[in-house]
Amino acid sequence: MSSEVPEQSSLPPERAPRRSGEGGAPVSGALTIVLAVVAVVGGFLILRAVVGGDDGGTTLPTGPGNGAEVTDPDDDADTDPEAPVVTDPPAPPTTTEPPLVTDGAVVVVANANGVDGSAGAMTDQLESAGFEMGTPTNATTGQLDSTVIYYDPDVEPAQVVAESVNRVLGGDSSISQVGTPAPVQTGELEGGVLVLLGNDKAGASLEELAPAADDGDDDGPVVTAPDPGGAGDDDADADEDDPDA
């Protein structure tokens, strides 16, 4: 009996499966490269969105609780169109009185009060203020509580001169045309303006009566008045028939 030698197969022998952990270096290297590329691309996209990707001008917070603020360009407006506009109140208008008219009519002061010599004293003060003065006299009306000023309508500047006298005396006296006869001892108005000096202004100085002395307005009349204490010495300037003037 012949011995048979078994035929050897022409196929290569099968390799045993590779165990885990052996030869894994190529797979780990490729995965690392992929993750690195993804991280770079992701970081670039995030940086672009934070720095220049937002066209609205809004800055996004980088994390919770980091104190970052969100700004809106509309909040930069300085004024609110709905808010009321506050303006300063207009300055009060300034008034300038016209200059005093002292020429064109003679002013006569008549005593219509209980102070002897007051008409002469007021005559001196009005003359110092620039008025053309006549001789002081006495009124036929008796004593008046308030001073009254009359003017002759036939003398053209008389009314404006009477108004100027009123301003110098404080601006609170009544002004009217003189009647016939005039309320003085002669019955006639010699000049153009007659001042019946009442108790309200008897013995007072123009500085005490003039409004400019109260409000400090430099545009008002500046009057230098003599001391009214010498009112009793004016009898010599009055007519002999007017001892009380």
The strand line-up of the biggest sheet is 2-1-5-3-4
Element string (H = helix, E = strand): HEHEEHEEHH
Distance between the termini: 194 Å
Low-confidence stretches: 212-241
The proportion of residues in beta strands is 5-15%
Query: Which CATH top level class of the domain at 107-234 fits?
Result: Alpha Beta
What does it look like?
This protein has five helices and five strands. The protein is α/β, with parallel strands linked by helices. The chain has a domain at 107-234: 2-Layer Sandwich (Alpha-Beta Plaits). Strands 2-1-5-3-4 form a five-stranded mixed sheet, covered by helices on one side. The longest helix has 27 residues, at 25-51. It is rod-shaped.
